[in-house]
Amino acid sequence: TLLYTIKFEMRYVILGGGVAGTTVADSLPLFDDQAQITLISATDTVKKVINLEQRGEIVSSFDITDSTPKTDKYKFICGVVIRCDVHAKTVTLKDGSVIPYDKLCVATGARPNVVFPDLPEVIGIRDTETVEDLECRLKHCKHITVLGNGGIASELVFAMKKCHVSWVIKDQTISSVFVGGVASKFLLDSLGHVSSATDSNTSSSVSKRHVYSTTVGASSDAEFQGSALGPDWYSGRFFEGACSNEALEIEYNSEISSVKKVVNGAHKLQITLANGKIIHSDILVSATGVIPNSEVFRDNLKLCEVDGGILVNRRMQTSNPHVFAAGDVCSIPWRESDKWKQMRLWTQALQQGFYTARCMASAEDETVEPDIAFEIFTHSTKLFGFKVILLGKFQEWEGCQLYFRITPHQEYIKVVVNDSRVQGAVLIGDTDLEEVMENLILNQLDISQLGEAILDPNIDIEDYFD
Fold this sequence. Notes:
This protein has eight helices and 28 strands. The protein is an alpha/beta fold and about 475 residues long. The N and C termini lie far apart (about 55 Å).
């Protein structure tokens, strides 16, 4: 008796050329060596992860590059999806092409939530094109206003030179997406302490000098919640204005109530804040979050009522079992741990892309458990030129304990502890503590014998807990 095994060649189609989409396409052959993979992107270049460096079991750092797909792993199509038929298992492109699939992954990302979008002087920062547009426009500007308090806004303020900047934030502290009052003060104080050697380097790894005047409230030591930041997107860019001096004015606890275009004025925009203050500016950069690109799938897939993302289950499946979603376009309602949460970051796009590929390649009756990346939140980025690592429940809550170690202008460490166990951490600077903190959060080891001494630089806590 001869037994033959015939393996069905599954047709996988991935929509989106961002980090999540390319990670799914690159990872699928690891789990299905017979896969027929098609990657469809609205642009002829896609984003690829390079220089991936593991800093712990989960936490990693990497760079993003735009590249033209040249690979034997999958077929690449440059096209815009206008329709998805989940019953016929096809997607239709703008040019009329119909692409069949057996399993589909939606990784179409998100777009900037731009305020006052009808004004050409108001722009959002999200991709290479918008960054290049801002870089070009800034050469003719003396005053720029930045709205938002996330990573993009924070790094843009840091990167700009030769212009007056008004930074409008709704919070009491800067960069409250990731850090709170104490860390915000550390970052602000550090801006005025850089070596003269870095001032001539527009892409220096440490912050540059600014003149600061702050209005509408003062900083506090409370921590605040927030969301997203991408990698070091401004590196190599020249964000230089047309002003002979530099200044930064931070408008705390503020929102913009109206924006009017000015004709024959010194500046192009008149921006009115909710408190009545008027700012005259050449450009307004709106960096106030993103909107998932899920509209094409609204009639076929269940969307999250809160943010409009495509809802997925623990296998990254949507409301249709043959359609998966990953990255900024999806909303994840489930939790493997209270130390993890979804934030629309390129870090999570990479993690979700790899896990989604594993789920897509598995059989329907096969048990697939979420990766360890869903056990604790991890993110590596930069703020004001400092390396920043965020781990676990890094924002405190009532009843927890906080341990700090702060070396002005060099490092900031905050450890969040509950019931003598580390729950989260914020590491700013070259602390070399990311791996040991990650392990303490994952393993939930009792640190009661050390207490605050866990941050004593004379104690090697890595050896202590071996």
